Fold this protein.
Amino acid sequence: MGLLEWLLGEEPSIFDQIGHDDKGEYAEYMIEYAVSHNNIGGYTRVLKNVYLPSNYGKTTEIDVILLTEKFIFVYESKNYSGWIFGSADQKYWTQCLVNKEKNKFYNPIMQNETHIKALCKLLQLDRSKFKSMIVFSERCELKKIPDDTEQVMIFKRKKTIDRTNETMWFEPKLFSEKEIEKIYDILHQYENVSDEIKQKHIESIKK
């Protein structure tokens, strides 16, 4: 974390970061912090670790959701190191480490699209009202990945604030403050779920 980012309110202080030892949880916390603290223009609400009902009685976990007057941003955090390779239509992407070890992981574009489909169904909203934001760690190098589209953006974590704000430039408002609060109230009930639901989600992923 840089001193400048902390002074600007873009990143938490080192003391605020204590308690986020898990790398995945830490990365999600950093995204949540970035899109909070008046860093994003207009009226906003933020949710983290939202467990939504999916197909066949399963759940899908969304890392961070940002509700704004112009779009609903859905962030998928990938806290990886190494070189990252993948295309939009590949089911699995590849992580290459310095020791030449290679690891496969599910295409984050497809993964986040599943999240957005669940949101569309629950909120009864059109896909055009959502933006898919794939956020990678600063520890990796994005060697060969898809170009950004109108619906999907892929970038490193320090670009979170800039990319989010840029996406909203010159765009008309889609949601009023009252509508944002209504959506927040619907999603908030899926935010603080029981340990039982979390465990079932983990088990379904393993299967």
Notes: The chain has one domain: 3-206. Residues 3-206 form one domain.
